Amino acid sequence: MGQEAFKNDKNTKPKLTPLKIDRHQIKSDKKGWRGYFEVFIRKFKTLSFLFVLIPIISLCLCALAISLTPAIALIVKVHGFLKPMSLFVFSLGMGAAISVSFFIFGVTLLVVVPVFNFILPLKVKPWRGNWRSMETIPWYVHNALVYIVRYMFLDYITPSPLTNMFYKLMGMKIGKGVIINTTNISDPCLIEIGDYVTIGGSVHILAHYGQKGFLVLAPVKIGRGANIGLKASIMGDVHIGENATVKPHAVVLPKTRIGDGEIFG
User: Fold this and answer.
1) Which long-range contacts (CB under 8 A, 24 or more apart) does 247-256 make?
2) pLDDT grade, residue 7 (50/70/90)?
3) Domain residues of the chain, as ranges?
4) Which parts of the chain fold into alpha helices (H)?
5) What are the phi and psi torsion angles at 109 (to 5°)?
6) Is the peptide bond before 159 cis (omega within 30 degrees of 0)?
């Protein structure tokens, strides 16, 4: 947790030693209801998972329902118009209406989900600690919202300005002239991409990782003009310098620093 404790010795100067933290502890260092809540989710793991998961699922279903509304309205309208016509014309018209309505749904979803992400009083911040903590809930909700767009629509429009727009609305800092040819992105609110960066196909970028049983949320920064090769993986707490290159299939581990113009992998 970044904390340290002094270990005194009569014959030597004080030494700094890491403060040990029990990742399996059930007790919480928080006060009030936050502390009781953390004890609950650590002690009753399965029950607490459902307790937290149900509101998140409800939130995602609400976002989907709102996004589907204009698409369904179009289908109903076209259905009423085509109903008196022949089977062939009716089927062709409904097929076209359903196809168009899918993209209407997707584009609406690109806007509705970021609105939900913005109005929720849950903000993701860099952090390290027990997976079952209050700090992990905003992270979980943020990525749940990202993933419903990712798995339902984003693959159909990547790469495009709409992809960049969505990630910007979700909190990612993106410079001008950036090409993002992947949807394998988690924690966009903790990612910063400079001008004229190219992110290759199927690249994985995630601003978190697990370390010795702890969850670590740490920003990723990619400098101006960098190039990230096909299927490379970039993990949390990685800084990539300007005009640097990450080779295809390379794995950039946490805390890696790639200098300006450096070729990695």
Assistant:
1) 248/200, 254/209, 254/211, 254/216, 254/218
2) very low
3) 49-264
4) 32-43, 45-82, 87-119, 136-152, 161-169
5) -60, -35
6) yes
Q: What is the pLDDT of residues 208-260, one digit of tens each?
A: 998 887 899 999 999 999 999 999 999 999 999 999 999 999 999 999 999 99
Which tokens sit at 219?
């920003």
Q: What is the SS3 assignment for 118? A: helix
Backbone angles phi, psi at 114, to 5 degrees: -60, -30
In CATH terms, the fold of domain 49-264 is UDP N-Acetylglucosamine Acyltransferase; domain 1 (2.160.10)
117-144 pLDDT, tens digit per residue, is 999 888 899 999 888 888 888 999 999 9
The pLDDT tens digits for 187-197 are: 999 999 999 99
The pTM for the full model equals 0.84
DSSP letters for 145-166: HHHHHHHHTGGGG-SSHHHHHH
Q: Tell which residue, 156, 117, 160, has the closest CA to residue 140.
A: 117
Other Cβ atoms less than 10 A from the Cβ of 126: the count is: 14
Q: Which residue has the tokens 């953390």?
A: 38
